[in-house]
Write a structure and sequence with these properties.
The chain is an alpha/beta fold. The protein has a single domain, classed as Rossmann fold, CATH 3.40.50.1240. The protein has helices at about 20-35, 50-60, 85-90, 95-100, 115-130, 140-155, 190, and strands at about 40-45, 65-70, 135-140, 170-175, 180-185. The strands form two sheets. The protein has a three-stranded parallel beta sheet with strand order 2-1-3, with helices on one face. α2 links the parallel β1 and β2. α1 runs parallel beside α2 (about 50-60) and α5 (about 115-130) crosses α6 (about 140-155). The longest helix is centred in the middle third of the chain and has 18 residues, at about 115-130.
Amino acid sequence: MRHGLPVRVEGAEGPADPVLTDEGRRQSERLAEWLAHEHIDHLMSSTLRRAQQTAAPVGDRLGLGVELVQGLSEFDADADSYIPIEELRQTRDPRFFALVEGRWDELGSTVDPSAFADLVHTTIEGVIERFPGQRVAVVCHGGVINLYLGRILGAERHLWFEPGYTSISRVAASRDGHRTIVSLNETAHLIATRVR
């Protein structure tokens, strides 16, 4: 699951690590309500605040603690700014094109996209190995979701689709190593649970 909508941060002293906006908190509550009817054995989250704040209501609703996993954090975890990708795309900001084309060094990142993709894959495969036969919910980031699912599909680009905030993408993992994408970018909970 991707985190909810975070606040925009520019020029922070140290890592930006934004919190959720009011809308992001509402999205997280709707996600929790939607998942309350499912059986989930474990709940994990990136160490970044936007993911933790998204996971918290899910954990509360399901009666689960949230395990923080460093390898689920986004590639820009140490950046001093966070501008939602939708804003970068809408304004045709050159940083958007650098981001989706894998030119992360132009964004001030020292993270190698291929090495980061390997870390994401190793981390999520480690989760699968730890909990065979169980259902695990993972709250993370758009880049992490792109990289893991992209590897399953054999996508050439690191960032090949835009996961919605609090979207759910499901993967079935067999013990023989086969991975199947069951769903991609589910956002029905944002409409179905909306209070009108």
